[in-house]
Amino acid sequence: MSAATHKSSALFKSSLGKKYLMGLTGLFLISFLLVHCFINAMVFFDRSGSLFNEYAHFMGTNIIIRIMEVVLFAGLLLHIIDGLMLYFQNRAARPQGYAYNKPNANSSWYSRSMAILGTLLLIFLIMHLYHFWLKSRFLGLPEVPHPQFNVQMLDLYSEMVVVFSFLPVVILYVLAQVALAYHLLHGFWSAFQSLGLNHTKYNNAIHMAGTAFAIVIPFIFALMPIVIYLRTIGVM
Prior knowledge:
By secondary structure, this protein is mainly alpha-helical. The protein has a single domain (3-93, 108-232), classed as 3 helical TM bundles of succinate and fumarate reductases. Helices cover 76% and strands 3% of the residues. β1 (143-145) and β2 (152-154) form a beta hairpin.
């Protein structure tokens, strides 16, 4: 092993290296959330679900997107594993709390609860993958004709109606978005900080952008199952 390879390996095994990796994968996942949120928002503009199915069809058949899907899944697993390792490493470094430690004075609640929020999001992710990704990729879903081209596309919108017609599932999804909002409130800023992209000149703008992102994106994600549920019971 060369000296450079050894130094690189040592870096990513260190606490600093894990934080850098968390920041890198975090920014990658933030970009995914933005795209995913845009596609999901199509359900607000078309009650038939055709518009949503069109965008989902494009994402599911585009070779570049499919490759990125694999990269995303690997990045997500890496983000989760790295986060858990970092959490337990920090715990091991201070096995006993100081007698007069006042955590509320040193950090916010959500920054001290990232592992708990991350676990809740992991449970949601498993449920979400089962409801949509597993069924669309492996178990099969009904198909509908594309409104413009002579191709068939998966009817993901109808599957969403089935899933979100069950109120407990809607509640779980909404709670998961609350956890996501808290996770992003800390994670957005931390990603920039871990990568050394913070600067006194831009810190306020990064904080403002992070706060807006942490509120708007989870709100849209949470609103989607609520709207579909209200449609299924005839309120909307």
